Amino acid sequence: MRGHTPILKLLYKSAPDLINSVDSYGNTPTHYASKYGNSESLKFLLKYNPKLYIKNLKEKTPIDVAYDEEIIEVFGYYVAKIRKNLKTINKRNKGHFDTTGGTGGDLQLTEAMQSDRKS
Fold first, then answer.
1. Per-residue pLDDT at 103 exceeds 60
2. pLDDT tens, 63-98?
3. What region, left, alpha or beta, does residue 54 occupy, with left being phi > 0 and alpha being psi -120 to 50 degrees?
4. Distance from C-alpha of 97 to C-alpha of 91, rounded to nearest angstrom
5. Angstrom distance (rounded) from CA 22 to CA 38
6. d(C-alpha 101, C-alpha 12), whole Å
7. What are the extents of the domains in the chain?
8. What's the N-to-C CA distance of the chain in angstroms?
9. Which residues make Cβ contacts (< 8 Å) with residue 19, sequence separation at least 6?
10. Yes or no: is domain 5-118 CATH 1.10.760.10?
């Protein structure tokens, strides 16, 4: 995965649905960037909100396979940015954040992740 960020950018531009595609081991591109310590590729992938809850055949998420300290920091930064964006949305909506799993909460979470992409 090292040095593959330009290829990822090209693939994402032509086929954005591939960001959550899985291979025969159940791994996504985010699993590989995480597992092999490619922080540049991981940062690129995280901008487009991959599904971090996808488990591979060993029942591991991309966060579970992160062994490199820098990769763990990248995930921590990403989660902190989403939390900050959610707080901003929550304030704007005067504390009415839908946490019931309904469409409103999904839309607000998506908005929070998209806010991160713009920054």
1. no
2. 999 988 999 999 988 888 888 877 777 777 765 555
3. beta
4. 9
5. 18
6. 28
7. 5-118
8. 25
9. 12, 28, 29, 30, 45, 48, 50
10. no
**Residue bearing tokens 């309904």:** 102
Which amino acid type is present at position 113? M
Locate 2 and state its tokens.
């090292």
Q: Are 30 and 42 in contact (CB under 8 A)?
A: yes
3-state secondary structure the chain: CCCCHHHHHHHHHHCHHHHHCCCCCCCCHHHHHHHCCCHHHHHHHHCCCCCCCCCCCCCCCCCCCCCCHHHHHHHHHHHHHHHHHHHHHHHHCCCCCCCCCCHHHHHHHHHHHHHHHHC
Q: Structure tokens of 11?
A: 């693939």
Which position has the token pair 């991309």? 62
Side chain identity at residue 80, one-letter code: A
